[in-house]
């Protein structure tokens, strides 16, 4: 398993992708977003979808002062999605995962979990391996 963190502290990123380069003999089985943090970003609502706005007025059981009104806005954090596939048909040791097409919002950090399976058991495997991961925008 591999944990990958992708952070976008800048402007909205279009056509974002992560490319995983790994040794021959293993292949990517799953690549899922497991945790997302939104710290705010460009544009109204940033990575949030506004669901509704409710205005509440003071009542006897309320902690609000008399004649006070409280506005509550409900938002839904849009979930980061990934879609993975080989970059080209001959690629046996790399996979490209497209992230939140068409836009990966500003101020979003996502933790992904990649799971691999061994496809060549006759390789001499050590206790560790090297993997290169690149992000493109």
Using the coordinates above, name the CATH class. Answer: Mainly Beta
Helical content band: under 10%
Low-confidence stretches: 42-47
CATH architecture: Sandwich
Which structural class is indicated by helix and strand composition?
A: mainly beta
Instruction: Determine the CATH superfamily.
Output: ntegrin, alpha v. Chain A, domain 3
Distance between the termini: 25 Å
Main sheet properties = 4 strands, antiparallel
> What gross morphology would you assign?
elongated
Give a quick summary of the entry:
By secondary structure, this protein is mainly beta. It is built from no helices and 9 strands.
From the structure above, extract its key features.
137 residues; 3-stranded antiparallel beta sheet; mainly beta; 58% strand; elongated; Immunoglobulin-like
Walkthrough of the structure:
This protein has one domain (2-40, 80-136): ntegrin, alpha v. Chain A, domain 3 (Immunoglobulin-like), CATH 2.60.40.1510. It is 0% helix and 58% strand. By secondary structure, it is an all-beta fold. The strands form three sheets. The protein has a four-stranded antiparallel beta sheet, with no helix packed on it. A three-stranded antiparallel beta sheet has the order 1-8-3, with no helix packed on it. The chain contains no helices and nine strands. The chain has strands spanning 2-8, 13-21, 26-38, 48-57, 69-77, 82-85, 94-104, 108-118, 132-136.
């Amino acid at each position: 398993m591999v944990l990958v963190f992708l952070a976008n502290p800048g402007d909205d990123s279009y056509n974002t992708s992560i490319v995983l380069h790994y040794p021959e003999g293993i292949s990517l089985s799953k690549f899922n977003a497991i945790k997302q943090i939104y710290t705010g970003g460009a544009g109204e609502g940033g990575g949030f979808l506004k669901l509704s706005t409710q205005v509440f007025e003071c009542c006897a059981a309320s902690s609000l002062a008399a004649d006070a009104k409280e506005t509550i806005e409900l938002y839904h954090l849009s979930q980061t999605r990934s879609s993975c596939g080989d970059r080209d048909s001959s690629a046996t040791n790399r996979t490209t995962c497209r992230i939140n097409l068409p836009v990966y919002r500003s101020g979003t950090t996502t933790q992904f979990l990649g799971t691999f399976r061994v496809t060549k058991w006759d390789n001499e495997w050590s206790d560790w391996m090297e993997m290169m991961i690149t992000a493109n925008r």
